[in-house]
Amino acid sequence: MAISETQFLHDLFDEHVDEASFLHQQKISQLRAQEITWAEIHDDEQRFAAHVDALIINGVEAEPYLAKKTGDFDSEQLFVYVSFLIRADKFDRFLNLLEEIDFEDLEIVENVSLALVFDIPLQWLDKLKNTDFKAYPHYLPIFLPAFVFRNSDLNPEWFLNNQHVTLSEQPLNIEVLGKSNSQVASDILAKQLPTMEGGIRKLCISALFKLGHENILDYIQQCNPQKEWPFSVLALGCGSSFAQYCRNIATADYNEELVEAIGIIGLTENIPLLITLLEDEALAQKAAEAIYTISGAKFTTKVFIPEEWEETELFDDEKAKFEAGEGPCHADGRPFGETIELISLEPKDWTQWWQHSKDKFNSDLRYRFGRPVSPMTLIDVVSLPNITNNIRSLCLDELEIRYGLQCFVHLESSFIQQDYYLKQLAKWGEINDHKFKAGAWYFNAKQM
Description:
5% strand, two-stranded antiparallel sheet, 22 helices, mainly alpha, 56% helix
C-alpha cells in the first residue's frame, strides 16, 4: 500500500530518533560497565550525529512532529530531542519542553542535563543563567551541571529555594557541586552528608574533599563503625596515617572496599599483602586490580565466553542438541562465543613479578600505574586510549582533591570534547607539575 510523503517523513524521523537514542543508551551503559574505553566511542558518536543532523536538515517538518511526541518519549529519546533542539538552536521550544517533562523522573532529569552538558552553546548558557529560580526552583537541578561544566559562576541566591537540589537522588548534581568551588554548595553538601547512604554518600564525601573539607575522616570515625567506612573514597583525600590504619587492619576483616582503598593509596609496601589476598576468592579480583593500579603491571589470561542461547532462537535440528547441553556451532565445530582477556588472579604470576620488580620502587612514595603520583602522571593516565572510565574517574578525582585542580571534562561526553579538555589539562600539567613533589601526599595543593 502506498504511503504519503508526509507519512514517509514521519516514519523516517521516528527511525532517526530511535536509532540515535539506542546509540546514546548503548554508549552510556558500556562506558559505565567498563566494557569500552573513551577512545572507542568515536564511530558511534559520528553515527549519532548523523541521525541528529538528518533531523536538523528536515527541521521545518521534524520539529513540530517531534514536539507532539515528547509526552511518549523515554529518557534516551528525550536526550536525542534536546540534542536536536540545541544543535538547531530552538531555545524557545526547549523552554516549552521544560513545562512538559516529569521532574520526578530522575532518568529524564539526568538525560536532559547531560544533553545540556554535552552541547550547550554560550548563548543558551547566558539565557539559562537569567532564569528566575525562585519561581522555577525545579529547573536548577537540570541546569546546574551545564553551569558547572562550563565553569560558570554560581549565584548563591539560586540555592535559597533549592537547599536539597535533589541531592539524595541526583548523583550528577553532587558531582558538579564538588567542582563548583562554591561555599554555598559546600554548606549544602555538609548538611546533607549524615542522611546519605551507599554510593551517594561516597559521591558526597568526594565532593566535600574537593571543596576543601580535609577532616571528613574524623566525622566518619565518630558516626560509623569501621565495617561501614567508605574506605575507597576516604583514600582519595586522607594522608599517611589513614594508610597506616588500613594496613594495620587484620586480614580477616578485609573487604572489597578496603582492598580498593589500598590500591588508591598507592604504596608499594602493600603489594605483598595484596598478593596474599589473591588467595581469597572473594577478594582476588579487587586485589589484582589494586596491584595494577599501583604498579601498572598487568598479567592477563584468555577466557572463552560461550554465547548464551534461548531455545526459541534455534532451528529444529539444533533444539535436540541444545536439550542435551550442546549449543550451536560454527561449520568447523567451534562453539559460538568470544575469547576475552582478563587480569590474572594467579598468585604465582604476581609473586614472580614482584621478586624481580620490587627494587624499582621507592616504598616512601605513592604510585599510580608504575609512576610516582603527580599531576602529570594522572593526566597521562586519563588520556590513555585503553583505560576504562572507572580508573580515569579515580585519576580526575585525585587531580581535584590532591592538587586543587578543577577538571571540567565529563567522561561520557564526546571523544572530541574529551580530547580538547585533556589537551588543556596537559598544558596545565606541563607548566605546574614541577611545583609538586612526585609521590608525596597532598591535599588541596598543599603537601601533607
